[in-house]
């Protein structure tokens, strides 16, 4: 059981020193309990998270810097600094940095599920190739959509 403790996770630090390289992005853990999980993400230009869904988690992003493009259940849109993106459980979504500049955001999900374990698994893959990422993700409650025909 993960239980929250009082404290401050500093701007350039992570809780328990946890940081991951996920599909070219940097994810830095900020809080982890059974009820919720948050992380800071830096998306270099051209990086993305392919369309997927979280059947058992609600996901949110608060855009801190830059712009991210989204595919939300078949609709393309974008969000900029100060915007909050709501991704209810089961809703397919993809996240793309097409802006040509880095983008930074705070993610959080509720409940946590095994998402931190998935991040560790992807981070430690010898190669983050689609087939391995999709297979590992499915074991941790994240379902990637098949590529368009």
Can I get a quick summary?
By secondary structure, the chain is mostly beta strands. 12% of the residues lie in helices and 42% in strands.
Can you put this structure into words, describing what you see?
The strands form 2 sheets. The chain has a 6-stranded antiparallel beta sheet, with helices on one face. Strands 7-6-9-4-11 form a 5-stranded antiparallel beta sheet, with helices on one face. It has one domain (15-142): Jelly Rolls (Sandwich), CATH 2.60.120. The mean pLDDT is 94. The chain is mainly β and 149 residues long. It contains 2 helices and 11 strands. The N and C termini lie far apart (42 Å). The protein is 12% helix and 42% strand. A hairpin with a 2-residue loop joins strand 1 (19-22) and strand 2. The chain has helices at 115-123, 130-138, and strands at 19-22, 25-32, 37-43, 48-53, 58-65, 67-72, 75-80, 84-87, 93-96, 103-110, 143-144.
C-alpha Rg (nearest Å): 15 Å
- Class by SSE composition: mainly beta
- In one word, what is the shape? globular
| Biggest beta sheet attributes | 6 strands, antiparallel
Say what the CATH topology is: Jelly Rolls
What order do the SSEs take from the amino end to the carboxyl end, as H and E? EEEEEEEEEEHHE
CATH architecture: Sandwich
C-alpha termini separation: 42 Å
Strand order of the largest sheet: 1-2-3-10-5-8
Task: Detail the poorly predicted runs.
Answer: none
Work out the helix count.
2
The first-level CATH class name: Mainly Beta
Question: What portion of residues is helical?
Answer: 10-25%
Give the percentage of residues in beta strands: 35-45%
Mean pLDDT: 94
List how many beta strands DSSP finds.
11
Task: Kindly give the count of domains.
Answer: 1
